[in-house]
Every structure is written in structure tokens, then in C-alpha cells.
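Re: the 295-residue chain
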Amino acid sequence: MRLFFSPLAVAALLGSLSSATAEDFDWRKVDETLGRQPATSGDVRRYAFPRSDLSVTLDGVAIKPALALGGWIAFKPTRGKAMVTGDFVLLESEVRPVTAKLIEGGLEITAVHNHLLRAAPTPIYVHVGGTGDPAKLAATIHDALAASKTPLTAPTSPGATPPVDLDTARLDEIVGVKGRAVGGVYQFIAPRRNQIIEDGTLLDPPGPLGVATVINFQPTGAGKAAITGDYVLTGEEVGAVTQALRSNGIEITAVHSHMLTEQPRLLFIHFWANEDALKLAKGVRAALDKVDARN
């Protein structure tokens, strides 16, 4: 008798098998190679590579790294190896040498594109993916980023957390999601309800792996905020979300994919506005109502 299993059941089984081998990896070597400690969530280890060296402005706003310049790479154990997915922030002149090193080391370039418009200098976002031995993947990532001016040494002291001069309690109420302050920016994360599978692996938790809607507010004075981020959507949701954002005065700056073989297929809508923060919160909430998200 032949048995059939759904893709989600298979992914869950693979996830349970991989978790038993996660502790066998020498994560200390990965930490040392990447020069920083990760943020951990479940079995996912996410390493931040913010472009704190860049001074990027957009429509007169000095962009904080936490708003739109936060490169990262995440590791998730799967089938005795590690899956990596990530997004590096590069200058145009850095794209060619960095991508050459990534490809040479066996990683896939899954997207190269903009997230913003009119920013100077122009940040380019290079998305990557792959599987393999985590120590070797970390070495490839380190060598690739060394071909750019991305800071490879973590700050010796994180310093004081910059204040967020916004009515964050009211923003939480309007957006309907509990936000968090990070790097002088107020951030909302809304994972999708449906499960996402990439190369047979269930992408869970979704936020650290880059498949949750992220909405960032950076104070710009007098109750205003610059907002950007990305909505994670199925194709059927794109039209309604773009219409909701535009009808609330929020500019669409990019629509594109970040991965190659995820199921269901996802598209990412990036956006920008600098206006009264509470007004913008109502706009992003109107768009979030069009997404099958947990909030």
C-alpha cells in the first residue's frame, strides 16, 4: 500500500529530524567567524550586519540602520545541514565582488534589487540562500562581506538605546500589533498565518527567516515618522495591499520576490512615507487588513 503525505506533513517531519542534530553543530565557530553573537529564536540563529558605516538620506531623512539598512543572515538546521537565508545591504560598487564570493562559496543569489527610491547613496539589497555545513557557510559569508565595507566587527558596547519620540502605545493600538523599539526605530512584525516551505523546510519561526511583514517607524520630529519595510504577500493579495497603501498616501517603492522555490509563492511590497505617525499607522493597518497575517 502506498502512503501519501501533504507537503506540510513532510516539512514537519523533516523539521523534527533536523532538530535532533542541531546541537551537533559547532555554533561557537560560526559566531567567531562572523564576529558577533546571534539573536536566537527557536532553532534559528540570526546574525545582524547593519550598515552603520553608511550615511544614507532619502527625502531629507537620515536613514537609521534599523529603518532600512539592516543586513542579516539566518541559519536554520535542516536534514543534518544548515539552511541559510539572508539579505545584505551593499553599495552599487560592492555588488559584483560580494556576489562573486558568495557564488564561489556555493551560495545562491536569490534577488538583487532596490527597496527604496531616491536614496543617496543608493543601497542595493542582495538576497542569498543555500544549505551546507554552517562553519563553511559562515566562512563564505565572512569572505564575501569582506569584499565590501560592511562592518565585520561587532561594537564592543551596544551603548544606550536611542529613544523613540512617538506615541508608541497609540501606534500599537492602531496597528493592532505590539511593536518594539530597536535602534531608534519602532518596529512591527506580523507573520503570515499560512506556513511557508522552502526546499522542503518549514520556515519557522517566520520573522527571523524573513517571511513576516515588517513595518518600521523612524521619528522625524513633531509627531511625524518616516516609514518603510515590506509586506509579505501571495500574488492574490498584491493588488489590494498596493491600493490600500496608495489610498493612504504611502508610496510603493518596489514589488518583487526574495526567494526562489518557496511555497506558496511570495511577493514583497516595499513602501515609503514621511508624515504624521498616527495617520500612517492607520494606512499600514488598512493594508495589513488585506493580508492573511497573525495580528
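The chain has two domains: 7-145, 168-288.
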